[in-house]
Each structure stands twice: as structure tokens, then as C-alpha cells.
Write a structure and sequence with these properties.
Layout: H1 3-10, E1 14-18, E2 23-25, E3 33-39, E4 41-46, E5 49-55, E6 74-77, E7 81-87, H2 88-99, H3 105-113, H4 120-126, H5 138-144, E8 146-150, E9 155-157, E10 165-171, E11 174-180, E12 183-192, E13 197-198, H6 200-205, E14 212-215, E15 219-225, H7 226-234, E16 240-241, H8 243-251, E17 255-258, H9 262-267, E18 269-270, E19 274-275, E20 294-297, H10 302-313, E21 318-321, E22 333-334
Parallel strand pairs: 16-21, 17-19, 17-20, 20-21
Antiparallel strand pairs: 1-7, 2-6, 3-7, 4-5, 4-6, 8-15, 9-14, 10-13, 10-15, 11-12, 11-14, 18-22
Length: 342
């Protein structure tokens, strides 16, 4: 990662301790935490059978401890340990933005801090809309988002109006109300806070607003106009495929494309996959066969969607594995060894 992006990431990592005998995580756990062992040793058990001990400072602990979910092992502290912990989604988003190149994490941070956000990354992670679009489009979205300061009592959108913007709350709270034949003043349906978004339904369905959104406090919103919303968030820019669909593509001559880091690929990967890290994808285009369909994957689908976007933009036939390696379905996984050449 770039130095400034690594510094931003370091601010989000927590340093924690665990006493000897305590569990770090259980087999089957699905908590979205990525952890690294910094000091001490841990015992690893699979199906109640001890399969080894990992010690800090060894090659085995340079990578996160068993990041694939659900956890396939139970890890317990042998002695007092220190470990690093970060939310997995947060880590994945920051790596994706770092590797997409031109729009750095610091620039994104400055964008949201300009409207008063103390934690821009948490804001983004809480914005469900950003989880439904290719990360490669996030740069363009941030360039086109417009800041809108808002005052308490201000009606942002009114029931029955035409849809014009999609909104994200950066600061403040909003009330959602809907007028009914029995209540002209409107029934309060919900309250929205930092990270929540609204306004997409009317834009997607080409319908009138079905509720009124009113500011409960002073705050700030970011908004995206209808055309940009359609272009960047609504149109199906990528082809997402299930494991079964991906297997059919591979059977017809396609190839798996692992866009994670080489260390991640060597730890666990899909058998036969080509490894081209996202940050190198533009430089390695000449090594890929334009006549071969590629099914891109990472852990969650974020990095692979960015990679597939780049490939599709340049004329490749590329797909994205829905859910990445964290999806269920019996992927043909393998451990260790170099990646096959493209």
C-alpha cells in the first residue's frame, strides 16, 4: 500500500491482548474480524483435534490467522498474547481503494472530513448502497457527489415529488414519514442517521417519491443526481456469477483469476487460478488472453469487481464470483505453491 494509505489504515487497527487459555475465535465463527498475532503463541484445533501451535514472529504468522469464514478452526492463547484486529470489510475496502490507483484514501478522507465527518470509512461502510456497486466506480461517484448543508426541519424530499437525487447522510438525523388517507400529517416510519442513504427507489422505479424525508437536526448530506446514479450505481456494469455458473464458464475454457495479493494466494486459493493482484492488473493486461473468459475472485467480491471492471472496460470477457472465496458451495481450494502463469 502507499505510505499515506497505510498510515490511514493503521489508525483503524486496534491492538488487543488476550490471557493464556482464552479463545481468540471458535471453529464455525462468522465474525468479520481480521487478526494478526503480534506476540505469544496460540494453539490451533480442528474438530477438537490439535493440529499445531503458531508463534508470533514466524513466517506462518505474517499473514492473518485463518481469515476465511466461517472459521474452520478454533484458536486459543497458549500464553498471554498480543494481536492486531480490524473489521474485515473495512480492510477489504481500504485495500481496494489503494489498489485502484488514482484516488487515494487520503483524498477520500479529505472529501468527507470537509463535510464534518469524523470517521469517513465507517460512514462508507454503513452506506449500504456502496456495497451494491463495483468499487472501481467509487472514484467517479466521489467526484460527482455534491455537498448539501441542511437545517433542522428542512424537507429534503417530499412524498409525491419526482425523483431527482440519491442521498447519503454524512452528519445529522432524518425522519421518514408517509402520508396516508387517515393521516395527512404523515406517519413516522423510521429515523435515519450517519451512513444511511435514501432516495434510490424513485430513481430505479421511475416513480414518484413514496415518503417524505425531513431533517431532525442540522447536518450535511451528499447527493448524486439521477443520471449519475443510473450510470454508476443502477446499470449492471458487471456480470456477477454464482459458483455453479462460474464452473460452467471454466468448463468451457475459462480461467479463474485471483486478484488478491500473492501472499493471500499462496495461503489459500482456487485450484488452477491465475494470480494477478489488483494493483498490477493494468500492467499485466498483455499477459492475459483476450479470447479467454476470466472469472475474477477475491475474498468478498470487492477487489475482483474492480479488476473485472478494468478488464471489461478494455474488451475482456470477465465475470465476478459472487461472494468471493467467502461464499459457500465447495470451491476447489488448494494451499501453497506458485500461481500458474497466465
Amino acid at each position: 500500500m502507499k505510505r499515506e494509505n497505510l498510515a490511514a489504515l493503521a489508525k483503524k487497527v486496534s491492538v488487543r491482548t488476550l490471557s493464556a487459555g482464552r479463545l481468540l475465535f471458535n471453529q464455525g465463527d462468522t465474525d468479520k474480524r481480521t487478526v494478526w498475532l503480534v506476540s505469544g503463541a496460540v494453539e490451533v484445533n480442528e474438530n477438537e483435534r490439535n493440529i499445531g501451535v503458531l508463534r508470533a514472529g514466524t513466517p506462518e504468522t505474517r499473514n492473518p490467522l485463518y481469515p476465511k469464514l466461517p472459521r474452520r478452526v478454533t484458536v486459543r492463547a497458549v500464553d498471554d498474547i498480543t494481536f492486531l484486529s480490524i473489521e474485515s470489510d473495512l480492510l477489504d475496502v481500504m485495500i481496494t481503494w489503494d489498489q485502484t490507483g488514482t484516488y487515494e484514501v487520503e483524498e477520500l478522507q479529505a472529501t468527507l472530513q470537509a463535510v464534518g465527518s469524523d470517521d469517513w470509512m465507517t460512514t462508507i461502510l454503513q452506506t449500504s448502497a456502496f456495497h451494491r456497486i463495483p468499487p472501481a466506480n467509487i472514484q467517479a461517484i466521489f467526484q460527482r457527489l455534491q455537498r448539501r448543508p441542511s437545517k433542522a426541519g428542512e424537507v429534503v424530499i417530499k412524498q409525491g415529488d419526482e425523483g431527482d437525487y440519491f442521498y447519503i447522510i454524512v452528519n445529522g438525523k432524518c425522519a421518514v414519514t408517509r402520508e396516508t388517507p387517515l393521516s395527512r400529517d404523515g406517519i413516522k416510519l423510521a429515523e435515519l442517521g450517519v451512513g444511511d442513504s435514501f432516495g434510490e427507489e424513485a430513481l430505479i422505479a421511475e416513480a414518484k417519491r413514496n415518503a417524505t424525508i425531513t431533517m431532525m437536526t442540522d447536518g450535511a448530506l451528499m447527493r448524486l443526481n439521477k443520471q449519475d446514479f443510473r450510470e454508476l450505481m443502477n446499470e449492471p456494469l458487471l456480470q456477477w456469477v454464482s459458483i455453479e455458473q462460474a464452473r460452467a464458464i471454466i468448463a468451457r475454457g475459462g480461467r479463474w483469476l485471483d486478484v488478491r495479493l500473492p501472499s493471500e494466494h499462496q495461503t489459500l486459493s482456487i485450484e488452477g487460478a491465475v494470480n494477478v493482484p489488483l494493483y498490477l492488473i493494468r500492467l499485466k493486461l498483455s499477459t492475459l488472453d483476450r479470447n479467454t473468459p476470466y472469472v475474477a475472485y477475491c475474498d468478498t467480491g470487492r477487489r475482483s469487481s474492480a479488476a473485472a471492471y478494468i478488464l471489461v472496460e478494455r474488451g475482456f470477457d470477465a465475470y465476478v464470483l459472487t461472494g468471493g472465496m467467502n461464499s459457500d458451495g465447495g470451491l476447489p481450494l488448494t494451499r501453497g505453491g506458485p500461481a500458474p502463469k497466465p
